[in-house]
TrEMBL record:
Database matches in Pfam families: Clp_N
Key words of the record: Hydrolase, Protease, Repeat
Transmembrane residue ranges: none
InterPro entries the record matches: Clp_N_dom_sf, Clp_R_N
Molecular function via GO: peptidase activity
Name of the protein in its database record: Clp protease N-terminal domain-containing protein
Native organism: Streptomyces wedmorensis
PROSITE patterns: CLP_R
GO biological process: proteolysis
Length: 184
């Protein structure tokens, strides 16, 4: 499948691996894919993100991702469902971080020597890449571009899709922007 990726899409995948390495994690997640998309400049996905979530709103988006990471990746819907059962996720996060340090539930490992080898992709990140292929095929595009990765991120659910939607980046909005002529 990777051979069908455009240079821009390949750069996103490589950028996601770099974000995971900087985070000190061995697994590339959907969040890393989004962060790599946010790094891009002159691509179709970058143009869509610039329009829908201008640079001045990006800190809010990355903060929403960091907050979700602190909650061990639970979405607001997950947190609310647990609250309905009488479980206060915020209190649990506070107690775990009090005992084990900030970010304990995020799975962050800051010791660079704790792991060596290639980054692996989480099941969810693999699903995004597979869906990007399906999106490209449905649109009758020959190659998978970074816009297909962005579209797939908006439709896979979870924290990343939730944070994107909260910032106006939905499947419909992105699709509308990238349906036009194929120029970055």
């Amino acid at each position: 499948m990777f051979e069908r990726f455009t240079q821009a899409a390949r750069a996103v995948v490589k950028g996601a691996v770099e974000h995971a390495e900087r985070d000190g994690t061995k697994t590339v997640t959907k969040e890393h894919l989004l962060l790599a998309l946010l790094d891009r400049q002159d691509t179709r996905a970058a143009a869509a993100l610039r329009t829908l979530c201008p640079p001045d709103r990006r800190p809010s988006l990355t903060a929403a991702l960091a907050t979700a990471r602190r909650r061990a990746g639970l979405s607001r819907a997950d947190t609310q469902a647990l609250a309905d059962l009488g479980i206060d996720v915020g209190a649990i996060v506070d107690r775990v971080e009090e005992a084990h340090g900030t970010g304990a539930l995020a799975g962050d490992r800051k010791d660079p020597g704790w792991w060596s080898g290639r980054q692996t992709f989480s099941r969810e990140a693999k699903t995004v890449l597979e869906k990007s292929l399906r999106v490209a095929l449905a649109r009758k595009d020959r190659e998978i571009g970074d816009e297909h990765i962005l579209l797939a991120l908006t439709m896979t659910g979870g924290v990343v899709a939730e944070a994107l939607a909260d910032h106006g980046v939905t499947y419909t909005a992105v699709d509308t922007l990238v349906t036009g002529p194929k120029v970055p």
